[in-house]
Each structure stands twice: as structure tokens, then as C-alpha cells.
Batch of 2 targets.
Target 1
Amino acid sequence: MTTSASNVPLLAIDDLHVTFSTRRGLVEAVRGVSFSVAAGETLGVVGESGSGKSVTAFAVTRLLDASGRVSQGSIRFAGEDITSASSKQLRRLHGAAISMIFQNPRGALNPIRTVGQQIADAIMAHEPISAGEGRARALDLLKAVLIRDPKKRLDAYPHELSGGMCQRVMIAMAIACAPKLLIADEPTTGLDVTTQKTVMDLLAKITAERGMAMILITHDLGLASRYCQRVCVMEQGKVVEEAQPLSLFSAPQHPYTKRLVAASPTATSTIADLAPEALSPPLSHSPHPEEAAVAAVSKDGPECAGASFETRTMSAPQDEGLGNTEKRKPAPGTPLLLEVQNLVKRYDRGVVAVNDVSFSIRAGESLGLVGESGSGKSTISRLVCRLIDASEGEILFDGQAIGTLPARDFHRSPLRKDIQIVFQDPTDSLNPRFNAFDCIAHPLRRLLNMKDGAALTARVSECAERAGLPSELLERFPHQLSGGQKARVGIARAIACRPRLLILDEPTAALDVSVQAVILQLLDRLRREDDLALLFVSHDLNVVRMMCERTVVMQNGQIVEQGESLALFAAPQTAYARTLLEAVLHLGGPTSR
Amino acid sequence: MSQLSTTAKRAGWRFASSLPALFGVLVFTFLLMRVLPGDPAVFFASGPSAGKEEIEMIRKQMGLDKPVPEQLVRYLGDIGSGNLGRSLTTGQPVLADLKSRLPASLELTFSALLIALLTAIPLGVAAALRQGSFVDHIVRFICALGVCVPTFVSGLLLIYAFYYLLGIAPDPTGRVDIFSSQPPLVTGFLLIDFALAGDWEGWRAAASQLVLPAFTMALFVVAPLARITRAAMLASLGSDFVRTARSLGLPPRKVIVTYALRNALLPVLTIAGIVFSTMLGANVLVEKVFSWPGVASYALDALLASDYAPVQGFVLLMASIFVVVNLTVDVLYGVADPRVSVE
Amino acid sequence: MTSSTLRHTVWILRGNPVTAVAAAGAFILCLLAIIGPWIVPFDPIASDVANALQPPSAKYWAGTDQLGRDVFSRLIVATRLDLAIAASAVSLSFVLGAVVGALCGYTGGRLDRYVGRFVDVLMAFPLFVLAMAMVAALGNRVENIVIATAIINLPFYIRFARAEVNVRRNAGWVEAARASGDSHVSVVLRFLLPNVLPAMAVQVSLNLGWAILNAAGLSFIGLGVSAPTPEWGIMVAEGARFISTGKWWLVAFPGLALMLTVLCFNLLGDGLRDILDPRMRT
């Protein structure tokens, strides 16, 4: 506790339990959480999906879904017990004493009301002022959140603003009535790294200036370590560790925290670092956090089918030689496998998604492609995979121009099996009507003309095994698998035909860090075993630095910088690359500002 | 200001893009005339007894001896000059007939739509606010049942209950009972005309004639409207922005009306446009049941008497009304939802 | 897969008695449509003027009409015709709509825009009037009722299939199929359609009721089926003349038959939606 005994903490949660009634009976999402926040303090609550961190926040403000309720424990705000406050009392608290900021800022704003009106609404909910005053105050608030051209934005609708601007508006609304406590639930998830940094800096500035306490709920250890004075780590509805960021990340005590810290990529970690205790007990016990999340939040649950399997596969073979993955440069004489020359992709109405892009990949080499949303990196992955046609430019594979055959007919090309792809969203990338076996067998049937029988079964089992998917899961349909398992099916499918180039389009963006860690290790191992060349598309610079020997930085469809990963990350040459790198969060204490 | 201009632009574009559809309907009605069983000239002749020469003359007069494309051009020219032909059964120009009968149909349809909206929106909102409650179950039951009862059956059963059994409804034929006098013609809408003339007794009589057919038609569309209101309201109550409004401590009225309901009304508006055009179709059935002197019953009588010019005029009229309705919905939508101007 | 579907169906039906009742109702309706003419107590067409306009009794369960024909027998016999019209119309528009809609949804582009425009126009037009005009143009026959009903149903299927395919066409598993060596055609046929058909089957069930109402409406106004053929719409039309004199059964029973049939298919459609949703399966 940082607060002295005489001082009542601003918010004190004691032994909080939250229960959801679902189709399958009651599910306890929060199981005895206790923590407190002092006035003016910033507390981080960190956890993976299903850890109950958001549910805790919604329980504090009593904004839970109708199916959830606080079943035990107490919530005291400024000494007053608000656990069973009436809706009238709550309405006085909301906005005026406790405010919230949400994930997905655009959705959090009323789409058919102007920004100015919405901010004025927030003020007028607690203060009897005229519409004119409301507008004036709204303008002041927009200035306070550093929105460019605030006067014009007053009459803008949310869809006319960018995600980052919407979040600023949301912040303006939240601080409109000078609350004592701000609860920010994943405030920057889904925003680009550079936007993420400016929004978080703004939040930190505002809370410091106005003496507001903040609870920052996030899955991102780096974010918590940078902006919080104290951090609580949650796992499966419980707080497992609470400490100051520096000690938490340098010397984690609880085994879960240890693994979480290890799994979070940093500026210096290597693939091998992500899960150092190779055969350590599984990260989560049962059920798997993702599944628990499904059960608790979406209430529709096919649930915990296959829950415990992920945990088993997580500790699956973490083979020897992991340490020496480090930047094996292909020998100088290695021929170019892929050569992209002056690639341009134009869409209707003159939108240029990719503009004059050239790069190459040697056999067995791993190239990272980083950039923010809209930089054209996903378009490149589809161009290279020959799923769409380029407007201009050449793609040479193994010295052959593969751009001449239209994408429509590329499925007939003998090179089809040599270029395979793994998609971002593991759920979206599997046909809901195919089971895992059929998903993996499909390319074998189509591209290698394998017929059903022992050979095919053996081959599918082998691929599944290499991807770390237990063979008993092959019968399952995608909705019966966890996110990590689905990602493994997607990888097994991509490697089934032994491709020479594997395109990875944000393969871990939708996964929790602990799952990401094992998937990254798996990809790295597969790459070394098969001498695969990788085109690794990602927005996460730390991941790219670990996985790739060379990196290409993109912005607005153009390459701004490319070079050896080590050199590029150590000394970026362009301003944009520097901004990107500066926005990357590192574990450790709060940065001094 | 800019929103208004984009809305106007959108409406203009929408209007322009519905012109091909209108043209399609024109061609369709033309073909309708041509593929119909029998020779149009025979129909337009004075009677079945007409001599060969007379038919031949009419044929020439109607241009039926010309090649098809020329006939089409001629036909379009006629339409352009407002000549929709002459009805055999009434002996009047079709345009005049339609003009005199249209207000009856519109009065019926508008009253029914008003009744339906005034019933369906509160029901849907009430059901959504108390999801899973008794009210919700009742509303859902009504919705499930409402779409299953054909209008012609519910109309007849209403007549049985309110005219035959209870005796509180007037004789279900026409807009005014035969003994009362018509008001001076201003708009053609009896309720308005009676009110303008200050004849409240006549107004009451006209209203009581209107109640049953209007309710019959309203019954038919309450279900889809209530259903979409409930669904849209549930969606917007569960949306992130309503949660935001709650988290800021906005008064419940403001949360429900300004935040949830206003957003929920957008899909209701779209459906209301479709419902209106369904009602134009249902008019045929309701007008028949209640002997309502509207355009639909006029067209139906003509159709059954193999008198095709009125049918063709009716289809054209429906097409034009549908274009107007679509435009109105578009404009309203453009005003209500700032996002549409983005496209 | 099939046995699990069956088990799942049973599980759903047990937890959802309304759907079970609707399914049973639909089954009985189909049965009546097949064997109806052999089990009815009276000849549905033979008139018996001595017994005209009798109210419902132990002998005439649903009373008799103005020609003394047994209303109950006529109701049962009419099942076949009413269901046949609706079913053939709906299957016609289902097949056409699925193919056209899937094609538009997958290719996008110009074809999609034109078809979409056409469908929008067709859908917003008073469909009943359209059907009326078509029957008038094509001739007053049962086949033409089927064609007219099929055409006015078509936009729903096109739009539905288009929307369902369109949201999936950029799904990862579709691109993955292409990376696995499938052509566009094979992606549509082997991947997209199987994923879309269950949802469309639900649409069929919901649409069947609507088609029945439409066909009955057309015959109510004197198009399509003609007397003395027993058909629900005509029976209501004939009874309408006597409603002002209190002969309610002539309208109420065929009306009830129509309502229950439509209700049955609507509820079944809602239930099917739950059953066919694979995410509901465990």
C-alpha cells in the first residue's frame, strides 16, 4: 500500500466476486479481487483475455451486462460503500466522481450526435448550465485534450474523426465533470503505435495536472510499466501479484507473472527468452483463459471443449538449439528466392495501396514488413501470395516472373504450393464447416492430388504434430478449438505442402502474449527445420526484431527504410522509423518525463 | 448546411437512378398490353358486335398496324402527355378515374401507417426495455402471429365482430354512408375536407368508415414494425455508446430517448418505407374486402373485366408513388443520419 | 457429422418445444397434402343444396358453404394445392437466387451493381401489385401464379445470398482456399455455398409462409385458381359474401388454416436457424 494508514484510499475493493449467469449455469469471472487506489495514483491492472480485468472495472462502475452481478465483496469509494448503491446514487457518481474510457473509441461515441453536443451532454448531466455554456465548456475541453482545430471539431460527427481523435473526445467527456477517478479500459488497443503513445501521454498529462487517480486496464505489460506507479497482475479472476513496475518486471515473484514477463517481447529479448523454462508447468491451469472469456463474456458458449489441450501443447517440445536462432544470415551466395520489383497496386478511385515497392528475400531468409494500419503491408502479402494482381511491377520467384499468370489462374501454377500464407485472425482463417483434419488436408488434396487414405492421414498427422496440434484435436471443428489451437491449424495447413516461402500476415496479432510466445517459437523452429523463407508482416516491432534478419519499414504504401534488423533497430535512419521505434514500449519503470 | 446539400445531392442522384426503373415499368406495362390474351383493338371497339371494318379502323387508329418499336414510342408519347387511355367499364379517361380515386387509397394507407407506427414503436421500445418480461413475450407473440394473418381474413373477421356481432361499426362499404353528403372537394381526403368545412358530424361518419379498413391494414404491418423496433432498440441499448452515456451519468430519459431510441429509429425508417410499399399492394385486398373506392379496387375490377388500360395506369401510378416514397425515405434518412453523406 | 447433426437436432428440439411443435405441424401439413383427398369425410366438390350454410356441427366440423359442401373436407383437400404452389415457387426462386446472389456477392463489380440496383427496385416495388400484373399478363393459370410468386420472391434470395457471400468473400479461409489451389469457381461452389446454404434454408422456411399468403391473396381476388377447386384463398373469397350475415365459419376456418400453416413455417424457420448454426453445436 502506498497510502498511509490515516488516509482513506480513494477506491478500495475488497474480496470482489462477480458472477455471470450463462446458459451453462453460473460462471465466476472475478474471484476475490482486492486492491485499492489512492487519490492521484495511477494503478495498472494487467492480464490476458479472460483474466477478469475488464469485468472488475465494470463491476466498480456497476456497468456490467444484465447477466453479471457482484456476488460477494465490497467496493468503497472515498470511504463510502457503493457495492449496492441505488441507480440514483450511481448516476451521481458516474461522470462526476468516477469516469470510464473504453476500448474502440469510435463505437463508444453516439454516431448521430455531434461531438460538441455529446461533451455538453456529459457536463449537463451533472451541472445545470445552458446549452450555450455547454458548448463553450465543450470547446475548452477539446482544447484541453489537444485536438487540432477544436472549433471545427465541435460540430463534427464521430465518423469524421480518426480513432485517436475519437479517443481524445472520449477523454474530454470523461474529465468533463472533474471526476476523482478515471478508469481506462484498454484505451489504446486497436490504435496505431504512434497514436497509442500520444493518447497515453495525454492521459498521463491530464491525470497529473488535475490530480486524478487512474486505473489503467491493459493486456500490455509495456504500457503498464511505462505509465503506472503500481501494477496488479490478474489471472483467472484473481490478483496474483501486486508491485511497483520496476520490481515487478525485474524480479517477478509469482510463477504466472514470471511467465508473462518472459513472454512479452522486449527490445532485447530473443525468441528463446520468451519461455525460458522450457518444460515449466503450463501458463494457465484450467480452463484456458480464452475459453473462460468466451464463457464469461459472450455467454453463448460452446466453451471449454478443448480447453486443457492448449495448455499441454504450450509446453510441447521446446527443442534444443533454440538459442542459436539468432540472426543466421544466409550465406552470401544464397540465391534470391523472391524478388519484388517496383510493385504498384491501385484500387478504384485512384487509391494507391502500394506504391513502387521493391525488396527481395533469399532462400531461408526471414524478412520483416512493419508499418501502421494503411501502410499497405497486408496488400503486399496478398500480392506476393498471388491472391490479387498487381497494377504494375514484377514479382520474381526463384528467378521466374510469377506476375504474368493472373491471380485468377495462379491456382494452376506449379509454384502455388511453394508460396503459402498464414492469416491474422485464426478464427477467420478456418472454414467453419471443415474440421481441423480437412482444413490441413485441403491443400494436400488440391495441390499434391493426394487421395483419402493412409498416406494422407499420415501426412496430416505429421503436419499437425509439427505445428504442435495434438492428433485427437483433428476431429474438431474450429469453434471447438481455442485461439492458439486455431492458429496451429492455420500453420499446419500452410506448411502441409512444404512451401519454400511462407507469408505470415500478423500471425499473432489476435493472440494473448503467452500464446503468441509459443506460436513465435513454433514458427521459428519450423523455419529452421524446413529452411523456409519468411515474409513476416507485423505492426509489432519487437516481434519483427526477434523473428527477422532484415526489416522493411512501410508508410502510406511506400518503403521508407529497409536494412538489417539489428542495424535498423539500433540506429534508424529516417524520422518515421525513429518515431515508430520511440513509440515501442519497454518493460521497466515509468519513464521520467 | 453542407448536410442539407449532400442530402439534396443524394436525393437527386437517387431520383435519377430510379428513372431506369420507371422506364422499365413503362416497358413492362406496354408489353403487358401486347401479350395480353386477345386483341386490344377488339377491347377498344364499341362491343363484341363490332364489325370487322370497325376493328380494323381502331387498329389503325391505335397504331397497332405499326412495327413494335414505333408503337412503343407512340405509347411513351401518350404517357408523357398524360393520356393513359380510356376505361371500358367507366367510360372515363383512366387518368381522370385514377385522380378521383387516389385520395381514397392514400387516406386509407396513411391512416393505417400512422396507426401502425403509433402502436408498433411504443410496443417495440417497451419490449426492448424489459427484455424477457411479460410485456416482451406479449409483443413477440403479437409479432409472430401478426405476420401470419392474411389481411383479407382479418378484415372480414373485424367486420364480423364489429358490424355483425357488436353493431358498433357502420356498414362496411365505401368511405361515406350513402345518406350523408360529400364535403366540398379540396384535398380529396375526406377527414381533412370535412374538417375544413367544419362538418364534424360528417367527419365522424367518415372516420368511423375508415377505422375498420385502416386497422385491418395496420394489423398487417404492426408486426414487422414492432419487430424491427424491438431489435434495433435492443441493439442500440447494448451498444457501446449507450454504455458511455451511462458511464457519464446521463439522466435515464436522455440515455433512452436521445441516445438509444434516436439511433434505433434509423432502421425503423428504412423498414417503414418497405412497409409502405407493401401496404400499397395490400390495398388491393383491403379495398376489395371493404368495397373501398380506391385505385386498387378500381384496377382489380378492371382486371377481372379484362379492361386493361386501368390496370396499366394503376401499375404506372404505383411505380411513381414508390419512387416518391423511396425519395422521401432517403431524404429523411439523410437528415437523420449524418453518416450517409460520406458515401 | 450426420449423426451429430441429428443428435444436435434432438437436443435443440428438447430445449425448444415451440420448434418441436412447429416441426410436427409442418410434418402433419405435408402428410395432409399427400393423403388429404383419401381421408376426408365428404366429397369436397359435390354440392348438396339442402344442407347449405350449416354452422359447424358434429357432422360438419367446420360447417357447410352456400352449395352445401363440407368446409372441413375442402380445407383438407386444399392443403395440397396451397403447399404445392408455395413450395414450387419458393424452390424456383431459391435455386435462381442462390446462384445469382452468390455470383454477385463474390465477384462484386459491375454485375453486382446492376443486379443490386435491379433487386433494390424490385424489392421496393409493391410486390403484390407486380404479381397481380404478371398473372394478368401471362394468363390466369396456376402455373403463372407459381411464376409470379417465384419472381416476387427472387429479390429476397438474391439479396440474402449476396450479402452472406459478400461478408465471407474476404474471410481468411476463402483466401486460404485460394492459396491451397482452389479456383474462384471452386471457392464459390465448395466453400462459400455450403456455408451460406443453411442460412438460406432458414430463409426458405420463413419465405414459404409468405408465399402461401401471396398465392392465397391472388386467388382471393380471383386470379389463378378458379372455383370450384378447393383452395383457401377462394374459400375466404366465397365466404366473404356471407360475413355480413354472420356466417363466420366460411371465413374463419380457411383463415385459420392459412394462419396456422404460415405460423408453422415461420416458427420452424426460427428454430432451424438455431439448429443449423454450427456455433451452437458442442
Note: Residues 103 and 230 of chain C are 41 Å apart (CA to CA).
Target 2
Amino acid sequence: METEVRLDRHTMPALGKPSKIDILHAAESKLPNGIPLYSVNTGTQDVVKIELIFPAGTLQQNLPLVADTTNALLEEGTAKHSSEEIASMLDYYGSFLETSSHHDYASVALYSLGKHVNKVLPILEEIVKEASFPKEEIDVYLTNKKQRYLVEEKKVRVVAARNFPALLFGNNHPYGHVVTLDEYEAINRDQLLNFHRSHYASNGCAIIVAGKIKDQFLNTLSDSFGGSNWKADDLKKTGEFAISPNAEKKHYMPKDKALQSAIRMGRMLFHKNHPDAIPFQILNVILGGYFGSRLMSNIREDKGYTYGISSGVVFLQQAGYFQIASEVGSDVCDKALVEIYKEMDRLCNEPIPQDELQLVKNYLRGNVLRSMDGPFALAERFKQVWLHGLDYSYYEKYISTLAEITSKQLQDIAGKYLQKDSIYEMVVGSKKA
Amino acid sequence: MIQFERFTLPNGLKVIVHRDTSTPMACVNIIYNVGARDEDPEKTGFAHLFEHLMFGGSINIPDYDNALQQAGGENNAFTNNDVTNYYLTLPASNLEVAFWLESDRMLSLAFSDKSLEVQRSVVIEEYKQSYLNQPYGDVWLELPKLAYKVHPYTWPTIGKEIDHIKHAVMPDVKAFFQKFYCPNNAVLAVSGNVTVEQVRALCDKWFAPIPAGNPPLRKLPVEPKQTQARKLELERDVPVDAIYKAYHMGSRMDQSFYAMELLADILTDGNASRMYLELVKNKKLFSEINAFTMESFDPGLFIISGKLSEGVTLEAADEAIQEELKKVSLAQVKKEEMEKAKNKTESQLVFGEMSILNKAMNLAIFELLGGAEEVNNETERFAKISEVDLLVEASRVINENNCSTLYYRSKSKANGN
């Protein structure tokens, strides 16, 4: 290829000056009944997302599956409208609901075009306040959910993901509990009604809205959710749970004739407000948190053992943990494990070369910009600090740590948290093909 | 409404620019007009394997990802039966890095033996992960084979069989590049905090010097009209029986596509959809049921897939699906059903325009489909479908002689547990 002489195609064009990262903060106010309202008013499209957050996750449930089932069935009927009618009304305005239940909280989010939001807000209000959990809907839901459980159980990745947290937290901890089929049988309507009444209530609720927000809309929102008539008198403070890690570090769940084996490895860490939280996240990126990570470079791009391998940090309100996940050819599973440990050792024993560190810093700075692009992304950034009792200073700290952190500091962090004998290991599949 | 400007370089590269100053980011999307349908039937899976090799170093730049990450960028790519698409986002201040990277790999690859060897293994692991080691995974290897007899949609993008990937050699890789990866077989779409002048200058600098190629004129065999019902039964180690029905329909820009998309919505999208209400909730024959189109450029498939409830036979499930389909092929859907489906679609299009990546990708795809401006006619095309149009299309498509049915039996169930 001798297409040109003057153009230098070997050298990367000079990088632009990194611009200052301005984070648009959520505006904070309170509804008359005390519900905190956070509003991210920006965007190019006439759309709105309204998310209601309740202390109604697995941490708050008294029986397995109650939190999840309550959340999923909110839209399946109220005193006034059937599941079908609710869906029809939302469909008509092109709006959609997203209900989700997590360990620390549950959420009900409504997405709508701005021009229709006043029409669909009453539906959101109704399902949150007046969900009626019809028996028929519960039965259909649980029957189909059990079937899906069986299908998912055939996937090595899912089995590993379900069982790994139990090694760190113990099966009795809400963060570690492995759901069984029998537990679906134990769910009944009263439990759901009770859980709904005491957890989907104004005391405990927070609202985040994002998109093109008009003042008039905030008034309507206050009319819907600002009243004193949906308070729960019996909302308890979330309890603390004892962690009982498994005594054995290595676990193997055989699955006959699996072509690939799922690997999960990791360890307990700390809360998001821990002084090592940000440095560890940067270290995690180097190990397995981006396409050019050491695990990807070694296990996929050099050895071809897998289609993908990654590591990540999970921060919860009462704990935090680190995990590596991959599916590898069963015939090379043992070799992959050796390489994964080797990569952790290298981070403990050798300083990260300057050019690699600089690359990761640049990449992550770009990622910060990417993760704050648009109203919904900005709302999510707010939520991810707010849930942990933190504020926007967390992101300022993140950006400054990113600029300042050294190879030496990262090696110290690795030495503290990536020692081989502290790592739990789970393999689901077949270790030899 | 996505506003854009378009120009073409002398070497044939089409360029589309959409300016959005609400973001500090830019997105660069390059689509190559080559997909699995363009492959040699004896060397399938090649377009997708090639996509992996595009990250294995280009003629002047040994490591694509490394360079992009230094510029704060993130990228990915996908291949399907119709096209191969590469996209990246990065801070707009580093836009030129994207032009440097993308133009170099359009100019020429490094063709490293190591990269070919490793990516063959990676793709084989992807094959296992997505198709062989997943419950119901091989449906997407078997169903197209049943539905298409001569059109290349008969093989899946990942390839007919693992051996085709194992046997890919460097001369094939080079020939594929020569044939398809040239500026006059690609569309470049740039969106975000950029100006048209800036993009034009960068194009002149980085892409204009790349010589035009001679991409082949696409002459694919036309799938003959199906005249008889086709059936296949598989027995696998899965917990529950499943059924898949695939009906031939029109191509992406035909009226058929818009009608069948709306119909899919009416049948199975959400708690108020027909089949969900009748077959999941009322008759309890299925634990889940889905209708969708393959969105393919050439005449495609309308697919119904469902997982059966405990104790229901595949024959009974099949009959129940046909009964529901008869209702929409014999009588018009209700006005409000139609309105709901259209409103939902319109809303999805508005939400889709929130990201610069979606906008760039859609502009590029529509440019290949007949013109980037078509991206702004989507709402209108859906709106124009009347209840009568839907009925006409449904009665044309929904016919057992136009259908391939796959019964996917659970082995444990077949053996009486």
C-alpha cells in the first residue's frame, strides 16, 4: 500500500486537552409529606423518567422471594383496574413501566413522552398505592417463574452466578441466599399484601425524575405522591445481617458434558465509602474491567480460551465484593484458572507500567463523560451515590484519584486485596472435556 | 427527527454527519456492506470471524484497542446476515484519533497469523457459549435451515458449523478484505459534538487517500415461494418443550415489514397483548410467548416462539397458536389495538434518538437500505399502515404452507421423566 507519502499514519494524532468534567447535579426538593424529590432537568428529547424508590428489597423481606414477587406483581392489578387495563392505558400513550427489585431497595419507574406524562402519572400512582395482588395473577406468575428457573438452571453461567455470593455471605444472608424451587411454593397473597402495605409507603420513598421537566409537572407529581394518606406505621428500620463465609475456598459443581465451564472468583471487600473503594475500582479495571484488561488480553486475546472474561466490584448498602466471571472451554478450564491467578499475582508483585496506567486513566476519564451523557444516565449517577449515603463529592474524588494515583499505590492495594489465598473460586461445568 | 448532512468522497465513501451539541462526546460508526449472506456456502461464518480480525492490528497501527482507549474511547462491532458494523464513542476533542484508526484499518490490515489463530479459538468459544452450551441455543442453527432452501439466510451469521471457522486460512482473509473492505462499500456516520466542516476536513485527510475497490454486485439466489408446510422435531436436554414457527414475509423496507412489526406487537408485546392474554393467562398453555420479525434486509421471517406449560402437548400448543393467528388473518384488528401499537412504536423511536450512538448507527444502516433520510420516515411508515393493510399482509403471510415449524422436545419429558 503506497497510497501517500506525507500523511503520517504511524503516529497517533495529538490528544485534545481534557476538558473539565462538569456534572449536572440533581435539584433537591421535598414533597409536602416529606418525600425527597431529586430532579435532573436536561436533554434534547421530550421524554421523562419518573423513578420511585422504596426500602423493599431482599434486605427488608422476612421470607425469600417476597420482595421480588411483590415488585413484579405491582402492575398486575389494582382495586380499580385489571392487569390488562393497566397495560392498555400505558400502551395507548406509548409509556412503559420498569419494575425492579434489588438487594437494598425496589424501584418502580415510568417512562413517558413529555406530552403524555400527565395522562399516565395517575396509573403510576394507582399501582404504587393500590396494587391488589389478585390470586389468579399470583398463580400465573409463580408457575411461569418456576419454569423459567428450571430453564435458567441449565446455564452454567447462571448456576455460578446464583451460588457464588453464598460462599461470601452464607446462605442465610439476604445477599447470599440461593433461591430454591420450594420457596416459590411458600409464597401467598397475604405476604405480598403485607409487604406492599408496610414497604411501598410515603415514609421511606424517594423520587428521582429525569428528562425535560416542566414546573407544572412537578406540581402534578406532588399532587399524586405528596399526600399524607399513604404512610406506613409499621415500617421497620432495615436490620443488619451476620455474614458467615464458607470455610472452604474452592468449589466445583460438576455438570455432565458441558462444553464450557463457568468460572466465578472473588472475595469480600468493603462499602463504597471505604478509603480503598476508588483505588480498588481502578485496579479492577486494569485486571478485568475493560476490553484491554489483563484478563482479556491474556485469556481471550492471547490464549483464545474464552469469548469473554471480566471482573467487577459490587457495592451494596451493607457490604461490597469483588468478582471475576467467565465461560471457558471445558478442556482449558484448569489452564484458565492458572492464568487468572497469575494475573492477580502480577498485580501484587510488579508495578503497573507507566504507559498502561496512563492508558487506563485516559480510558476511565472518557468513561466518566460517557456515563454522564443524557438525563437518564445523570439520574443513574445520582442514584448510585445517594443509595450509599454519598453525594456528588464522590465523583470529584473519583476524578482526582484517577489523576493522581500511582503504580505504587495500586500495587499496595493489590497486595492488600488480591492475595491468592483470600480468593474464593467456583467452577460450574466440566473440568475436562 | 434527526438532522444530518451528507457528502461522498471521490473514492466512493459516503459520509453522514449529525451534530448534537448537548453532549461532550462524539460517535463514529462505519458500516460495511457485507454480511453472512455474502459468504461462500462452503466457508460460512467468515464475515463474523473477519469482524474479530479487524481488531488484530492494521497496516500502520499494531493495536487498535490500545490506541482508542488512550483517547478515552470505547468501541464494539456486530455482524449479522446483512452487514458488518463498527462503532466507537470518544470525547469529541479526540475525534481525529477515531479517523486515524478507522481509516488505517480500511486501508489495510496487518494480517497477523497469531491474530487469526487466536480469533478462530475465540469465535469457537463464542459458538459454544451462544449456540451449543445454552438451552435451546441450537434453534438458531436449525430454524433458518428449515425456512430457507436457497437464499444464504439458510446459515446463521456465526457459521453453519465449527469446522468452517477452524479451517479459515490467511489467503481467505486477505481475499475477503480485498473484496469487501473498500471505501465504496462502506458508509461513515459521525454524530455528536462535531461540525460538518471538521468532519469534511478529517475525511479529506484520512479517508480520501484510500483507493476505491471493486466490491462485487450482490446477486443472491431468490428464495422460491414455499408451498408446503415444513416440520422438524428435535429432542434435547432441556427442562420444557418449546415451539418455533417461522413464516416468510417481506424485506426491511417493504410495507410487509411495518405491518408485521405492528402485528407482532399486537400479538405478544405486553400484558394487554392478544396471545399473552389468551394463551399465557387465560388458557395457560404457555409460560412465555413471543412474536417478532428478523428485521432482515432481504425477505425475512415472522417468528412465533413459545415455551409450553407443564402437561401441554406440542400439537395442542401449535393448534392454539394457529387459532390465534387465524383471528388476525380473517378479521381486522380493532382500531384501538392498532393505535396502541403505533403509539408504542412512535415512542420507542423518540427514546431511541436519545443517544448519539443510536442516531449514527441508524443513519448508517438506512443509508445502506436506500437513503439516510428514510430514518426520519419510520414513524410515518408505521402510521400509514391501516387495519386493512394489516389484514391483507397477515392473510398473505400467515398460512401453514408458508411456515416452518420446529418442535423442540425435552428429552426427560419424552422419556416419561
Note: Chain A has 15 helices and eleven strands.
